[in-house]
């Protein structure tokens, strides 16, 4: 707990900001990323191109089959640096009543409040970085006015692989033999692509759906009927077509054909993290598939020490008229097999309008 100013050290402030209640967003709740603290400013990934192969049977006493190992290589990725600072003036605190109380505000409380504010901005940034990692392109800087990426780490280029083709779903609001099973067939193809890349079936698959993709998915006949029969309370109407007495809001996630579909609407201001017309399919539960590399802060106290998720430091202003507070993170989320990340779009077919 922060007790005295200006005696707070980097260790005290760093401990404080890492205790800030963390709201990581949807991707953070999936627990995809394995933390990898390092003492360098680069993430080093060693790859060995081993692949499974069946051992052939030979006559007893015959020479065994020779093992063939894949080549090894080392990939270095620079870990980006995300600092943010704020200044607290003594006059900002002077004569200010503590929120909800009669006594006056104290400087340590204001510092903790500012740490909380800086921490929330870092939370949003980390969520955006993680979304980039599950899409194969970690965007580290965007234009604040247009949202256009200005700096990024393309994982496909880094690993020397070609991004998989975008998959197109065909949705229809009406049933019929020509539409029966199209969504299921497309999902099966996506899972097959993941299996081909991973060498085995992933324990689970998640689809992060942009808002337009989600809305189209929820009204397509194949999915709508399946969700309705699975739990009639999820949609307005029941299996027999009649109304529900107390209809509930549509779910923000549901499972269908082995995939957990999640509505994703992450944004900062007008900048949307995920294209509303797309969905991102991600294998989950695969060891070492997603890692998060941490580097140390650029402070004297942290040189060549294992990186932490967050850092914070303060410096007094001239003549003690306040303090400058800085928080930072040095992190790079990575997918080590980016070809298993599948992007999807959709087209929507609606019934023809009846002739008057």
How many individual domains? Answer: 1
CATH architecture: Alpha-Beta Complex
Q: Mean pLDDT, rounded to whole units?
A: 81
Supply the number of helical segments: 8
What class do helices, strands and sheet pairing give? Answer: alpha+beta
Which fold name fills CATH's third level, the topology? phage-related protein like fold
So what's the overall shape?
globular
Order of helices and strands: HHEEEEHHEEHEHEHHEEEEEEEEE
Strand content: 25-35%
Helix share bin: 10-25%
Q: How widely separated are the two ends?
A: 73 Å
Notes on the structure:
- With 356 residues, this protein is of the alpha+beta class.
- It has a single domain, classed as phage-related protein like fold (Alpha-Beta Complex).
- The protein is 24% helix and 29% strand.
- The chain has 8 helices and 17 strands.
Helix/strand layout:
Layout lengths: L9 H9 L6 H5 L4 E4 L4 E7 L23 E7 L2 E9 H4 L13 H29 L1 E6 L6 E6 H4 L8 E6 L9 H17 L5 E6 L1 H9 L1 H10 L22 E4 L2 E5 L3 E2 L2 E2 L6 E6 L5 E5 L16 E6 L5 E14 L6 E8 L7
Parallel strand pairs: 1-14, 7-17, 8-10
Antiparallel strand pairs: 2-3, 4-16, 5-6, 8-13, 9-10, 11-12, 13-17, 14-16, 15-16
Observed structural traits:
single chain, 356 residues, phage-related protein like fold, 6-stranded mixed beta sheet, 17 strands, globular
């Amino acid at each position: 707990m922060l007790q005295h100013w200006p005696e707070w050290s980097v260790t005290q402030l760093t401990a404080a900001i890492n205790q800030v209640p963390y709201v990581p967003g949807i991707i953070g709740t999936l627990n995809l990323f394995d933390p990898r603290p390092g003492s360098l400013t680069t993430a080093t990934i060693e790859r060995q191109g081993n692949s499974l192969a069946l051992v052939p049977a030979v006559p007893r006493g015959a020479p065994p089959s020779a093992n063939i190992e894949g080549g090894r290589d080392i990939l270095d990725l620079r870990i980006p640096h995300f600092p943010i600072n704020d200044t607290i003036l003594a006059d900002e605190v002077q004569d200010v009543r503590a929120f909800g109380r009669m006594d006056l505000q104290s400087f340590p409380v204001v510092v903790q409040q500012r740490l909380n504010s800086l921490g929330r901005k870092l939370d949003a940034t980390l969520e955006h970085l993680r979304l980039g990692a599950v899409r194969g392109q970690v965007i580290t800087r965007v234009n604040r006015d247009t949202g256009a990426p200005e700096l990024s780490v393309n994982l496909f280029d880094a690993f020397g692989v070609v991004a998989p083709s975008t998959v197109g779903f065909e949705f229809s609001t009406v049933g019929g033999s020509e539409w029966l099973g199209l969504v299921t067939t497309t999902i099966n193809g996506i899972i097959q692509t993941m299996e081909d890349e991973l060498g085995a079936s992933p324990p689970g698959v998640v689809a992060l759906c942009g808002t337009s993709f989600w809305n189209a998915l929820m009204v397509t006949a194949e999915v709508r009927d399946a969700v309705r029969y699975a739990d009639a309370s999820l949609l307005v109407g029941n299996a027999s077509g009649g109304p529900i007495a107390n209809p509930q809001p549509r779910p923000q996630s549901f499972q269908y054909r082995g995939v957990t579909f999640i509505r994703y609407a992450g944004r900062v201001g007008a900048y949307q993290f995920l294209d509303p017309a797309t969905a991102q399919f991600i294998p989950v539960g695969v060891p070492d598939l997603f890692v998060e590399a941490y580097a140390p802060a650029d402070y004297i106290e942290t040189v060549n020490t294992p990186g932490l998720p967050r850092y914070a430091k303060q410096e007094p202003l001239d003549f003690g008229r306040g303090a400058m507070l800085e928080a930072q993170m040095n992190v790079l989320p990575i997918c080590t097999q980016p070809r298993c990340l599948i992007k999807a779009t959709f087209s929507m077919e609606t019934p023809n309008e009846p002739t008057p």
